[in-house]
Amino acid sequence: MTRYELWFLLLLIAGTVGTGIGIVYTKYLSRVAFVELQALHAERQKLEVRWGQLRLEEAALTTHPRIETKARKLLGMYLPRSEDVRMIGGER
Fold it and tell me: Other C-beta atoms within 10 Å of 68: how many?
C-alpha cells in the first residue's frame, strides 16, 4: 500500500467517523427540540383551557342583571322616573 493510498484510507476513516458523530449529534438535537415542542404543546393546551375559563367568567360577570344590581348597590344608581325625564326638541 502506497503512502498516497494510506492517507486516502485515513481520510476516508476520519470522514466516516466524523459523519457518524455528526449524525448522532443531529439526532440528539432533534430529540431535544422534540421534547421542547411537546412541552410547548402542553403549555399551549393549559393556556387554552385557562382562556376558556376566563371567557366564561367574563360572560358571567358582564350579564345585564348583574351589572344593574352592582350599579344600584355600589353606586346608588337607579332608573329615572318618567317625571325626571325631559325631552329636548331639536330641528329635523
Answer: 13
Question: How many of the other CB atoms lie within 10 Å of CB of 71?
Answer: 13
* pLDDT at 92 > cutoff 70: no
Q: What is the pTM of this model?
A: 0.59
Which residues, in sequence order, are CB contacts of 1 under 8 Å at separation 6+?
9
Q: What dihedral do alpha carbons 17, 22, 27, 33 form, nearest 10°? A: 160
CA-to-CA distance for 72 and 70, rounded, in angstroms? 5
Q: Are 72 and 78 in contact (CB under 8 A)?
A: yes
Question: Nearest to residue 13, comparing CAs of 5, 23, 25?
Answer: 5
